Task: structure prediction
Amino acid sequence: MPKLQELQDLTIQVRRDILRMVHKVSSGHPGGSLGCTEFLVALYNETMQLQPEFDMDGKNEDLFFLSNGHISPVFYSVLARRGYFPVDELNTFRLINSRLQGHPTTHEGLPGVRIASGSLGQGMSVALGAAQAKKLNQDPTLVYTLHGDGELQEGQNWEAIMYAAGKKVDNLIATIDYNGQQIDGSTDDVLPMGDLKLKFEAFGWDVLEIKEGNNLEAIIKGLAEAKTRTGKGKPVCILLHTIMGHGVDFMMYTHAWHGKAPSDEQLENALAQNPATLGDY
Result:
């Protein structure tokens, strides 16, 4: 397993990738991508059990499904830096005929991507099918998902949440990016979510919270705890308290950077706050 400093260096480099990708095409979603950087770095480089070669079946390895597909910049960067495809391919983000479209899709055949996502609310349903297939195949590995908190305003989530508990899908760990922001404002202003912990528990889930969702050590510890709770008859939910735009001071704590690219001057400022650690693509 990599050392903490290596993961921290990777996190900073992934942030640079996100900022440069979105800036180049003046399009994309930096806010949520930056907020989930530590989580995905930890998940793919510390927590998940992965096979050396990618295949769509994903047998005998942990699977991850990104439900809030608009944060594709962080997903692509983490996949590339993990070795799924060449890092310099990040330079094609959102270009015509690129495999790295604004929302991940499968018909381009991009290694690491198993579902098309971006139409919000669907990821958990897909993950449930994969998790139940693993049970049928007596495959002991796990299924992980990531969802936005605003995404939970989509009703399909709650059908899936109810089903997961009702069918005791206990090889599933669903993480909620709990940043309190969505495209049109705070979740409290757009549609208050209430107490998500109580909601998930009322639906029959085992819930834990990671209060420092942008702290690598806290995330690694929380994911390890979540793994110990699998296989006990309940699906597991992690409420990951993150800061949208984390790591770039003028992007933090606001929905304004949900889907807006930085200008040349803003990019220079943001990159200065995140000096290169592993080399830019």
Remarks:
- The mean pLDDT is 97.
- The CA atoms of residues 38 and 215 lie 7 Å apart.
